[in-house]
Amino acid sequence: MSQDTSTPDSPSSPDSPRRGRGRERTRGRRIRRALLLSLLVIVIAAGGTAYWLYSRLDGNIKGVDIDRALGDDRPERLPTSGQNLLVLGSDSRAGAENKALGGGGGVSGARSDTAMVVHIPEGRSRAVAVSIPRDTLVTRPECVRSDGSAMGSASRVMFNSVYSQVGPACVVKTVEKMSGVRIDHYLEINFAGFKDLVDAIGGVTVDVPQDIHDKASGLDLTAGPHKLDGTESLSYVRTRHGIGDGSDLGRIGLQQQFLLALLGEVKSRDLLGSPASTYRIANSATKSLTTDEGLASLTSLSRFARSMNGVDPGSMDTIMLPVAYDRIDPNRVVAAQPQARTLWKALREDTAIPASARKLPATGG
Fold first, then answer.
1. CB environment 19-32: b (16+ within 10 A), e (fewer)
2. Which residues touch 314 (CB under 8 Å, ≥6 apart)?
3. CA–CA dist 20, 23 (Å, integer)
4. Strands, DSSP E only, in 204-244?
5. Which of 5, 67, 82, 355 is spaced 20 to 30 Å from 76 by Cα?
6. Are 291 and 62 in contact (CB under 8 A)?
7. Residue 274: which pLDDT band, with cuts at 50, 70 and 90?
């Protein structure tokens, strides 16, 4: 019968310190492996979530190839002209939410409900927003529809009808022809997107200049500060029966005022301090957004937004295109000359806008 000759200090002894140390090293390696695997799973999960969030926001943005649609027949891009954006608010009835917000009963299709040319001079520390009244009679240039067919030029066309007749690229071309200003970027947001963006921010406070009682929209506000939710904000920027002469001119001042309040609200927020809030705002801002191809990605849009950080909404200059009542149809307006030419020339040359260009013969605003 063999005798166990191992001692507590021998390597084969279960109680040997060396064997104990080996078990501890093995257990330590298992723990480290488990921690590494757990960390790897967390990193992969976080990376996957981040990629999903990015992909969702990126996929929200719809792009329009403006450059391809317009070709080379465009105003020259001057080296010192800054950046020019055409911003449209469209009254699209596409989708149940847009249709419900749009009102208008059986109205179908879409029109450019709000239009602004935003000029950001070199240095990007200030900006000018020029509103084009939707009732302005313009000459629509020859354009190509989305199906490739051509639509000939036409005079005395209502500006807001160009969008529904031919599409966004033709709106850009019409603005370029009437102004001589090269449009670098195009941004469009629809009814539902505007409402959701305001709600995601938590509402926007505006100082209502006078009592507004608009039976058509149900908007009923007294003069003074009000915090408006998304639906109220949409009614506020679209009201035309509750202010001024009931035409489009009266509400342009409200639209410009609201734009500044909205930009100021976004700029004042600590978006990085609340990732959940940031995502809600970004999702609302992008899911109903259409841009030119140059901005049609989250990366490009974010880069452009960062480059605008120096622009203070409080110092933005808001102007209405100088218009006069049309002599044939007083319910329509036309660009007033020479004021309009002076205004567009100042934007093209990146110079201060003369006081003479701010005179508005049409008094409905």
1. eeeeeeeeeeeeee
2. 260, 264
3. 5
4. 204-208, 212-214, 219-221, 224-228
5. 355
6. yes
7. low
User: What residues are paired with 87 via a beta bridge?
Assistant: 116, 187
Tally the C-alpha atoms within 13 A of residue 151's C-alpha that lie toward its C-beta: 22
C-alpha torsion angle, residues 358, 241, 190, 324 (rounded to 10): -30
> Please, what sign has the CA dihedral across residues 342, 343, 349, 354?
positive
Q: Is the peptide bond before 338 cis (omega within 30 degrees of 0)?
A: yes
What's the DSSP call for residue 76?
Answer: -
The closest of 214, 228, 113 to 164, measured between CA atoms, is 113
Strand, coil or helix: 234? helix
Q: Tens of pLDDT along 115-149?
A: 999 998 877 678 899 999 999 999 999 998 878 88
Task: Please work out, in degrees rounded to the nearest 5, the angle formed at the alpha carbon of residue 320 by the alpha carbons of 359 and 253.
Answer: 110
CB 309 within 8 A of CB 272: no
SS3 254: helix
Query: pTM here?
Result: 0.77
Q: What is the pLDDT of residues 318-349, one digit of tens each?
A: 899 999 999 999 889 999 999 999 999 999 98
Tens-digit pLDDT profile for residues 56-72: 777 888 888 988 888 88
Q: Is 289 exposed, middle or buried (CB count within 10 Å of its CB: 0-12, 13-18, 19+)?
A: buried
Count of CB atoms situated within 10 Å of the CB of 156:
13
Q: Which two tokens stand for residue 123?
A: 């240095």
For residue 40, the SS3 value is: helix
Which residue's entry shows tokens 């005022």? 257
CA distances from 359 to 73, 222, 326, 339, 346 (A): 31, 29, 16, 7, 15
201, 265 contact by CB (below 8 A): yes
